Amino acid sequence: LIDNYYKKTILMKLTNHFIYPFSQKALILLFLILQCSISAFAQKSIIKGKFESFKNEALRIVIPNQSWDQESNNYEFNIQIDQTGNFYQELNLSNSQIIYFHYYNTVTNTSFLYSLFVSPEDDLTIIVDASLKPENIKANGKHKEDHQFLDILPYLDLEKFKGDTLPDRVYKEIEHISLNSKSMLDKYIKIHKPSEEFIKSWQINLEY
Description:
By secondary structure, the protein is an alpha+beta fold. It has helices spanning 2-41, 64-67, 168-192, 196-207; strands at residues 43-51, 57-62, 76-79, 86-93, 97-105, 110-118, 123-128, 138-141.
């Protein structure tokens, strides 16, 4: 009995010495592999272009989906524009996303919002002419059909309803925007023949 007790004790010590550390090493290795896989899955996309008439412009790129990720701070980018009006920004994306290209001029107090549907490895060139109107923007590059002007309001201007005590006017405005946006999306699909990912993403976006 004593001999058996010592055999069991030695076996348990050997198990603790070899198996547990091996399990820990295996878990650490698995974690590192997963981390590398996630990093490798995110791919670089490029948004570059030029303002033909450059006067104190400022640019911001906003990735709405990533703003909900508490672990990610990379959902808003302020873009530097050089003296000739050129700009360049790299994004790391793991999937195709709706991205807002936001222009604003602090001197003239003018701005516009242009939506892009950017996929991993996209290389886009955007030309903004002197009119500074989003409908006149030229977007070229990979998946060109996903980057043309889509006349959809991305948000509701609540200032118009300041002081209202009932939701009637707000509800009617939301309904109007929703119907108009869906109509604009249908029109865009017929003209530009965008990708299935583009269509599904915008349909979901307009629902919520």
